[in-house]
From TrEMBL:
UniProt xrefs under InterPro entries: Redoxin, Thioredoxin-like_sf, Thioredoxin_domain, Thioredoxin_ResA/DsbE_sf
Subcellular location: Cell envelope
Coiled coil segments of this chain: none
Start and end residues of each Thioredoxin domain: 49-219
GO terms for cellular component: cell envelope
GO function terms (MF aspect): isomerase activity; oxidoreductase activity
GO biological process, one term: cytochrome complex assembly
Name this protein carries in UniProt: Thiol-disulfide isomerase/thioredoxin
Residues passing through the membrane, by range: none
Key words of the record: Cytochrome c-type biogenesis, Disulfide bond, Isomerase, Redox-active center, Signal-anchor, Transmembrane
């Protein structure tokens, strides 16, 4: 290989490093905007950002520090998630309550710093979409009901959460069909109860989740 070839190869690698590929479409635009904002806030702390696009049957994935956004095409979704539990208010809840609705499920606990930060963003998306065949449900993996209620009051969260600290049956039901790798994790289920999208890590923008919910609403069953 000549010196000129080496120079061209090095320039190509630098260019690829500087220009990560966003997922295409509306969600890609929203994610790109979120990354630009995160870059400004991360530089002083030395945080790195990486965006990646998976190439399997249209699957799109975005990675930014501790945040991972993964969309699952309908043909690749696994079976509907079946679950049942009791909320912090003592109300029974199950997957049967959300038939023909898009359901957003957020795994959290009160002492989780990212859970506190993202709580208003989740509530914002809930307020935007409620009444449009959309439901929100938290899954608290650690706290007693009183702690979960206090968290909801302190952070303005109006949707309920399952208290899943005894047998972890709700968490296990979801883990059987999709990775639950970190807390917080937010899932978007389609009208059939299948996981259509997964956000692992702290939600950085209400627009990202809102776009995922809107996409699931537009799908035909």
């Amino acid at each position: 290989m000549t010196r000129q070839d080496l120079v061209r190869l090095g320039a190509s690698k630098q260019s690829a490093t500087r220009r990560p590929a966003w997922p295409k479409g509306r969600l890609g635009v929203l994610i790109g905007a979120a990354v630009l904002a995160l870059t400004l806030s991360s530089c002083s702390a030395g945080g790195g950002l990486e965006a990646a696009q998976a190439g399997s049957a249209g699957t799109q994935e975005f990675v930014s520090g501790d945040l991972r956004v993964h969309e699952i095409p309908p043909a690749e979704r696994r079976e509907p998630v079946r679950f049942a539990g009791v909320t912090e208010r003592g109300d029974a809840v199950s997957s049967d309550d959300f038939v023909d609705q898009v359901l957003v499920v957020n795994f959290w606990y009160a002492a989780c710093g990212p859970c506190i930060v993202e709580a208003p963003l989740l509530e914002e998306v809930w307020q935007t979409h409620q009444g449009n065949d959309v439901a929100f449900l938290g899954v608290n993996i650690y706290d007693q009901p009183s702690t979960a209620e206090s968290f909801a009051a302190d952070n303005g969260v109006s949707y309920p959460s399952v208290i899943d600290i005894v047998d972890k049956s709700v968490s296990q039901a979801f883990a059987a069909v999709t990775p639950i790798q970190a807390t917080p994790t937010t899932l978007v289920l389609d009208r059939q109860g299948r996981v259509a999208a997964r956000i692992i890590g702290e939600l950085q923008s209400a627009s990202i989740l809102s776009a995922l919910v809107a996409d699931a609403l537009q799908e035909t069953t």
